[in-house]
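I'm stuck. Please check this protein.
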Amino acid sequence: MVPKKVFFTKGVGKHKNELQSFELALRNAGIEKSNLVKVSSIVPPNCKIITNEKGISQLKPGQITYCVMSRNSSNEPHRLLGASIGVAIPRKENSYGYISEHHSYGETNKKIGDYAEDLAATMLATTLGLAFDPDKAWDERKQEYKMSGRFVRTRSITQTAKGDKNGLWMTVLAFAVFLED
């Protein structure tokens, strides 16, 4: 199977049981009826990015669904948690892209998303042989990526949440979901 489409979605769930908080986060993301299979980080050549609404509408109950998933859970009151997916797609249509997953505690939505996006772009750049200094700020490296003419876009999807004050389990999820047709 080589996916033809990919969409991005996210969700958050809260419950006294960790597994049920995960299930509620899947429902919030709209993909709870799928049998998820975690895969690694390659976007196939010519894979079209579609909206999550369009992607979710194409899923069938019980379908084996391949995805890159970032997951984070905690029952610590007031703990900030996050999960993010970053993606980097090269300009060439017949080239593959990279997806990264990142999860952390105590970081803002923007910081987690920027990190995931940076990670995906860095993995793709090293694969393409693009020389860059990993100690430079993201904005400086972004300029190098643009100057190389190799990237069309980078993006991320991130879900953050603050832990329940009463210690219920909180789960945050972010996904890149692949579809065959």
Summary: The chain has a mean pLDDT of 90. The chain has four helices and nine strands.
